[in-house]
Design brief:
The chain is an all-beta fold and 116 residues long. The protein has no helices and eight strands. It has a four-stranded antiparallel β-sheet, with no helix packed on it. Strands 2-7-4-5 form a four-stranded antiparallel β-sheet, with no helix packed on it.
Length: 116
């Protein structure tokens, strides 16, 4: 018998010397599925001052772009809602041109998960 539970999964990474990095998360249990409602992203260190704007692009479980933003210091998106994430699939946030290491970036996924 499966159970539905609230989902809040947070992944924090350290950005590289260029302010780039990738944060990913997905179901880890066999037969676990996720029904995400939103993602929240944030990069530490404030708005970069370089000529190339900082961005974050969100990808769904099949590698399809779901959303993108210049608001790397904190933004949420519900564009992931309606997708089902299976074991082995990931939700990914790709940060680019943010403040460089030791800055960090965070991806938080909220919604529900079904576990066996």
């Amino acid at each position: 018998m499966s159970r539905t539970q609230p989902l809040t999964r947070t992944v924090t990474i350290t950005l590289d010397g260029n302010g780039d990095g990738t944060a990913s998360t997905g179901p880890t249990l066999a037969n676990e599925t996720w029904a995400p409602q939103s993602v929240y992203i944030e990069a530490s260190g404030g708005i970069p001052t370089g000529s190339t704007p900082a961005t974050c692009t969100i990808f769904g479980p099949l590698g399809n772009q779901v959303d993108a933003t210049y608001q790397v210091t904190g933004a949420s998106s519900s564009m992931i809602a309606g997708q089902v994430i299976q074991p082995g699939q990931q939700i990914t946030a790709v940060f680019a041109n943010c403040n460089p290491s030791p800055a960090t970036a965070t991806l938080t996924v909220t919604g529900t998960r079904t576990v066996p």
